[in-house]
Known about the structure:
This protein has 500 residues and is mainly α. It contains 24 helices and eight strands.
Amino acid sequence: MKKLILARRLSQVFFLCLFIYILWSTTYPLKGIFSPALFFKFNPLVTIITSLSERIILSGVIFSLCMLMLTIILGRFFCGWVCPLGTVIDIVGVFGKSKILTDAQNTKIRRAKFFILGVIFVFSFFSFQIAWIFDPLVIMARFISLNLIPSVTFIIDGFFSWIIRFFHLYGPVYDFYRSLQNSFLGIKVYYFAHSLVIFSFILTILIAAFKLKRSWCRVVCPLGALYAVFSRFSFLERRVKECSHCRKCKSDCRMAAIKDDSGYSKSECILCMDCVYDCPQHVTDFGFKLGAERERQGISRRDFLKLALISSLQGFGFPPGKAVLKKSGRAMVLRPPAALIETEFLNRCIRCGNCMKVCITNGLQPALFQSGFFGIWTPHLVPEIGYCEYHCTLCGKVCPTGAIPELTEEQKLKTRLGLAKIDRSICLPWKKKEQCIVCEEHCPVSNKAIKLKKVQVDGKIIERPYVNLRLCIGCGICQTKCPTRPKRAIIVYPVRVTHS
C-alpha cells in the first residue's frame, strides 16, 4: 500500500477543502475561529514582499518565518502537500499527457520563476507590491470567491427552484431546499466584474498542466521559487541505493526534479513520494541527512541574500520609494472603509478577493483601470450595485495584510468613505417637481445626513433633499436606492478621510 502517497493526497484534499470552507463560510456576521486572513499569514511571499514594500512588519510575519524554517527542515512540503492551487493542478494533470524534457531544458525553464521572484523583490524596493499577480494562494482565493462560489450557488439555487416549481415539490424537497438556504446556500448569489478575466487566468494555468505536469510550479510560481531557495538546505533528502538507472522515476516525476544520472534537484522536489513507489527495485526512500553537500542550482543563496538586502535597505529610507509613485494619495474610486491612503493601499492589497466575497451587499467589486494600471483587481465600492452596510466591519476582519484596517463597530459608524452630491438637473423633486424622499428615508446616519426642505412650487408643497456634508459618511445607500435611471441623481464621490 502506498502509504506516503495516500497521506499526501489526504493532506492535499484536506487543505483544499479547508481553504474552500474558510472562504465559503465567511459571512456577516463573522462566526467561528477561522478567517481567510489566517491562511495568508502562513504565506511568506505575500508577507515578506508586502512588509518590504510598505516598510512595516505585518502581524503574520512570525507564521511565515515558521514556514521557511519548516522548509529548511523538510523541503518544499508546502507545494506538494498543502498548496490548494498545486492540488488542483495535480488533479488536472492526471488527465493530461506531459512532455519529458531534458535536464538542460528543465534547467532553462526553471530560471523563469526565480527571475519573477527577483522582479517582485525589485519592485518592492521601489514600493510596488506585485506579488498578488503570481501568488498561488491569492490566485486560488480570487477564483473561489469571485468565480466558484457564485457559480455553484447560482446553479444549485436555480436547480432547486426549477424542480420545485415544475414538479410542485412543496413537501420534503422544499424543506430540504430551505435548510440549504440557511446553510450551504446562505451566501447570496453575487455578480463580480471581470469574473471572466479572473477565470481565464486560472484556466490558462490548468490548460498548461495538460501539456506539462506542474508547469506553473516549475516555471512561474514565485512562492515555489522562494521555497526552492530555502529547500536547497533542507535536512530531508532523497536517497537511492544501487540504482539500475532504469529512469522510470525520471519519466514519472511531476516536477522533473530527477536528473538523467538518477540524481535529483532538491530545490525542485515537492515530496510527492511517487519515485519511492515507482522504483521497480524499491531502492529509493527519503531520510534526514545532516552536513550533506549542497547542490548549486537556480538562484544562488548569495544572489538571494543580496536581493533581500537591497530590498531591506529601503526600510531605512534609501531611496525614497514612495516618491517614485508620484501620486497624491487620493483614490479616484470609493475604497472600503478606513482603507489606507491610495499609494499604501495599492502596495498592501494582494487582490485576494476576501473583502469582495464577504461584502453583504455585493458593493465591493474588482477594479480594472479606474485607479490606474496598478489598481487592477483592487476592491472599490460601486454604489449602483451595492452600498457599504452601516454596521458591517467584515472586510477589515478578513483582510490578510491590513490594507483595510479592522474597525470596531463604533469606529465604523464614524468612518467616511466619500461624500454624496445631488445632481439637481436629474433629481425628481428639483427637476420635475415630483415628490421623492427615497434618499432621506434610507440614510442610516442617526441625525440623517440627507435633510429635506419644504418649498412651495406651483401651488404644492415639495420636499427637496440636500446633503449635510458634515454628517455624510459616503456609505452609498442613497445612490443605490435612488430611483432615477440610467444615471442616479445622487452620487457619492471619494474623499481622503480616516476614521475617528
